[in-house]
Amino acid sequence: MKNVIAAATALFAASASAHSWLACTDYDNTEMLKWMEGNSTLPFPITIDPTMPAYANFCKGWPRAKQNPGNWIEESSNYVWNLVANKFNGETAACHPSQRSPNQLGGAPRAQAKAGSTIRLMFGGNGHARGASVGGDPGYVTVYTKGEPESDITDLSEFTDENKLQSNGFSAESFAYPADPNVKSPTQGLQDKGNWQSLQLPKAMIPGRHMFVWVWSYEGKDQWSTCFDVDVSE
Ligand SMILES: *[C@@H]1O[C@H](CO)[C@@H](O)[C@H](O)[C@H]1NC(C)=O
Q1: Most buried of 52, 54, 78, 210, CB within 10 angstroms?
Q2: How many A from CA of 56 to the centre of ligand 1?
Q3: Which domains are present in the chain?
Q4: pLDDT per residue over 117-135, tens digit each?
């Protein structure tokens, strides 16, 4: 029994350490990527973390119930939604309780975008960009939406192919250093603070509030979600 408890605790610790959530739903990383690259090649490299409050002005849209700029330690325990653990307990909601209605916190409005344009979602890495503590493969980030204004996804069963808007590799748009691909984890020196997903909004979107769920899956399972809205215009 003792071993069983030890194994369960180890499993929980492993899954608790690997988590990510959307920090921003409309982030301009043009300047940021140059800073990240430039600082990483200094004689004494400086890690630039785009999720830090100092860079919040690059964010033009926030997820539901997200602070601007936010405290990631607080958010990592209060704001992320663990799909696997909740499903195990019979809870099949798509979103964290704080994200089940289109609510925005003060000074953190939702993204505004034209139909047919691209918005850049941002999320943190923490070693996962090269597969650390997620089974060696960083997995996928997928965005689901109903495709109609004022129409929300509420349950896991709605993560369907029909509702799938776009799926990309978790680290398809990440900046990580050092370049040596054998450096795979933060303990080995990997720095992978910024990850993005450029989300192309369909041209035919009807103007209005559209709701989206961002889902990070790895080890073959949907693991974490963040829910957000975008005000779409023509
Ligand atoms: C390092 O980052 C800062 C922003 O934090 C930026 O102003 C500076 O130009 C960057 N340095 C290099 C060498 O890219």
Answers
A1: 210
A2: 16
A3: 2-233 (2.70.50)
A4: 999 999 988 889 999 999 9
